[in-house]
Amino acid sequence: MYEYKKRQNNFARFILLLILIISINAVSIVIYDMYTNIDMYEEDTSSQINASRISVNTEKNNNNDNEDISEVLENTIECVVGISKIKNTGSSIFLNNSTSDLGLGTGMIVSENGYILTNWHVAGEKYSNCYITLENAKTVNGNVVWSDKDLDLAIVKITASNLKYITLGDSDNIKIGQKAYAIGNPIGVEFQRTVTSGIISGINRTIKIDDENGESYMEDLIQTDATINPGNSGGPLINSKGEVIGVNSVKITNAEGIGFALPINIVKPVIQSFLENGKFEEANLRNICL
């Protein structure tokens, strides 16, 4: 009986040893598989490295885009001028009140021979005079050769030649959300030719203007969140190509980031007529606007 139990114990120990050996082998296989998977994962990290390199290259492309717009803005700024109104005290058969003080504003050169586009409330009435400060800080006399109070637009002529002039774009093709840049002389000469950026926030806007002459409305305006301050009036609103799409004119004073520009296509026929004929018939624009 004792011998039989001893044999049973030995057999049980053998079974336990066998189970232990099998378990150790199984665990070894599992650990090997895990190690193999870890190796494969580490090899796949090369794709992550490549992705990082792509990101770096994309950043370089963005830097190139910034360099491109900086060059565009530098070229455009050369075509932007300061406009200050001369105080006239004499009488004039062309003006109801020839005493004018419209302060500092902005204009843009639209031809090599000295035609400058701006706002009516910057340059004043037709046949009045103003000072034009060019990019090289030289100041010359300017004569208002065309002015429309209802449109708040005016064209000033200076005696000059071979001027660098701005490129006119197409305001009919602008889209909400596209980038826009405003250039002007906010507040005073200390901040002349300041550039602000934003987007086209809206098109075909209509706003009401209250002034000493009563209420009036401005229609078909371009809305932008590019900052426009006093002194920016008459300056260009341009796209990323440096093309003028609007003339900065109005800011909502009790809100932030709401400014308006007149579409450049409104005044293109006037500019073209002056370039071709040296004059413009007032009735022509009325027919075009209607």
Structure annotation, total helices: 4
List low-confidence stretches. 38-60, 88-102
CATH class of the largest domain: Mainly Beta
- The overall average pLDDT, rounded, is 79
Give helix and strand order, one letter per element, not per position.
HEEEHEEEEEEEEEEHH
Number of DSSP strands? Answer: 13
Note the gap between the termini.
124 Å
Estimated radius of gyration: 36 Å
Shape: elongated
Report on this model:
The protein is of the alpha+beta class and 290 residues long. The protein has three domains: 1-77; 79-165, Trypsin-like serine proteases (Thrombin, subunit H); 167-268, Beta Barrel (Thrombin, subunit H), CATH 2.40.10. It has helices at residues 2-77, 120-123, 268-277, 282-289, and strands at 80-85, 104-109, 115-118, 129-133, 139-148, 153-157, 167-168, 179-184, 194-211, 214-224, 236-238, 243-251, 259-263. The strands form two sheets. It has a six-stranded antiparallel β-barrel. Strand 5 (139-148) and strand 6 form a beta hairpin. 29% of the residues are buried.
Main features:
alpha+beta; Thrombin, subunit H; 6-stranded antiparallel barrel; 13 strands; 290 residues; 6-stranded antiparallel beta barrel
